[in-house]
């Protein structure tokens, strides 16, 4: 199928007039006027003189032709080129457009009532009987005055109750922030509806009978082009300050031949807002966790080449592993000679924690520094002894002050040592 233009996923661009069957449209319009030729075709004479009101409408709801009786009944404002929905009561316009869009080309008539605007500003209740000939795009309609007892009844209220599937679809279109549309195999809109149309100043049924290739410019969407060629597609776009998720689904006829495209565009602004809020909260949590980690492992350089890490509270295996990572990184960055682990604030250690402390001191040595334990409390000392932890090769001091003094003396001794 050859496509010379393609639409963006949201259908709010310029509208074009319905051009299918151009020769037929011109002929109908010619028949709708008083013939001036002497040799008038019988069908032209029938159309011109038929006493009932007869109107021919395009699939998009535009009047193609109407006879004199129709003009006399509906008024001069309903004329060729005018959309019938514009001539209807505001409460009936949408239902009228939808009724025209649902007419099948099987010749079976549909009947409903609709209020029409009058030149004096009043409303006239008309009964519409509409049908389509097999294989024809035009909609034929006869108009008559509605029964006065039912003159107030809207077209939507005169129709029989719709199947559950149609009622579900109606509820979704009315309450969800979506746009739904359908085209035939030639790209002609046969359905166009959805609550989200209001965001673009569009109205349901506005593009019925029009071609996607005439409606839009050269802005091409690869997923939609693929759908028009029979392949499903999906995309996310940002249009007019809104985020949209667009799905394109090809539809097939009974013989599995390509029959058109179903398109659904969903406004994702709310979802995008929630996602951005969650991302902001996660970023805040990560920053807070970083602050907490810094508070849990406050590594302080108390002297040149001397680092100290005061540990407070319960030191479990998870915290001990994080302390090791942070302390080894600090020793490496500062080129420290000593790293003091002050356990004055630690009341409880378990086997895994004791193992991590010993491993931490050994790892510090591998970096060329010396690890020192200070402030071991009696309860912790008893636990270490009962667990059989060997601290014989690790310098220990009763307080942080004593440990720091030990480090300073060692540094001074190395400074005074004569060069060989």
Automatic annotation (TrEMBL):
Coiled coil (residue ranges) = 268-295
Task: Please give the Gene3D superfamilies that the UniProt record associates with this protein.
Answer: PAS domain (3.30.450.20), STAS domain (3.30.750.24)
Task: Report whether NADP shows up as a keyword of the record.
Answer: no
Question: Which PROSITE patterns does this one have?
Answer: PAS (PS50112), STAS (PS50801)
Record keywords: Coiled coil included? Answer: yes
Please indicate which superkingdom the organism of origin belongs to.
Bacteria
| Keywords per UniProt | Coiled coil, Phosphoprotein
What InterPro entries does the entry give? Bact_StressResp_Reg, PAS, PAS-like_dom_sf, PAS_4, STAS_dom, STAS_dom_sf
The cross-references to SMART domains, in alphabetical order and at most eight, read: PAS
Q: Where is the PAS domain?
A: 165-222
The residues covered by the STAS domain are 296-407
Q: Under what name is this protein listed? A: STAS domain-containing protein
User: Which source organism does the UniProt entry give?
Assistant: Polyangium fumosum
């Amino acid at each position: 199928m050859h496509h010379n233009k393609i639409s963006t996923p949201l259908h709010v661009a310029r509208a074009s007039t319905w051009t299918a069957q151009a020769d037929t449209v011109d002929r109908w319009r010619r028949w709708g006027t008083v013939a001036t030729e002497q040799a008038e075709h019988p069908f032209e004479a029938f159309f011109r003189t038929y006493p009932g009101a007869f109107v021919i409408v395009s699939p998009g709801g535009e009047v193609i032709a109407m006879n004199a009786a129709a003009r006399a009944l509906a008024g001069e404002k309903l004329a060729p080129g005018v959309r019938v929905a514009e001539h209807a009561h505001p409460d009936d316009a949408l239902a009228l457009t939808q009724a025209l869009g649902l007419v099948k080309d099987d010749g079976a008539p549909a009947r409903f009532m609709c209020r029409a605007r009058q030149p004096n500003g009043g409303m006239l209740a008309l009964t519409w009987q509409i049908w389509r000939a097999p294989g024809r795009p035009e909609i034929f309609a006869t108009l008559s005055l509605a029964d006065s007892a039912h003159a107030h009844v809207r077209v939507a209220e005169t129709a029989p109750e719709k199947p559950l599937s149609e009622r579900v679809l109606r509820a979704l279109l009315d309450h969800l922030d979506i746009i739904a549309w359908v085209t035939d195999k030639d790209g002609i809109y046969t359905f166009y509806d959805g609550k989200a149309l209001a965001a673009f100043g569009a109205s349901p049924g506005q593009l019925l009978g029009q071609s996607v290739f005439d409606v839009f410019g050269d802005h091409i969407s690869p997923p939609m082009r693929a759908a028009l060629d029979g392949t499903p597609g999906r995309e996310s776009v940002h249009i007019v300050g809104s985020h949209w998720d667009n799905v394109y689904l090809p539809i097939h006829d009974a013989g599995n031949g390509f029959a058109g495209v179903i398109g659904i565009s969903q406004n994702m602004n709310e979802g995008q807002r929630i996602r951005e809020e969650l991302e902001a909260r996660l970023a805040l949590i990560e920053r807070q966790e970083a602050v907490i980690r810094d508070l849990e492992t406050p590594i302080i350089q108390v002297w040149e080449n001397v680092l100290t890490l005061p540990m407070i509270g319960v030191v479990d295996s998870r915290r001990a592993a994080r302390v090791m990572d942070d302390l080894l990184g600090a020793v490496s960055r500062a080129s420290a000679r000593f790293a003091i682990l002050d356990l004055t604030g630690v009341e409880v250690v378990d086997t895994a924690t004791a193992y991590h402390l010993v491993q931490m001191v050994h790892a510090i040595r591998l970096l060329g520094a010396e690890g020192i334990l200070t402030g071991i409390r009696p309860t912790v000392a008893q636990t270490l002894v009962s667990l059989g932890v060997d601290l014989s090769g690790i310098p220990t001091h009763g307080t942080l002050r004593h440990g720091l003094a030990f480090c300073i003396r060692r540094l001074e001794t190395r400074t005074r040592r004569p060069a060989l």
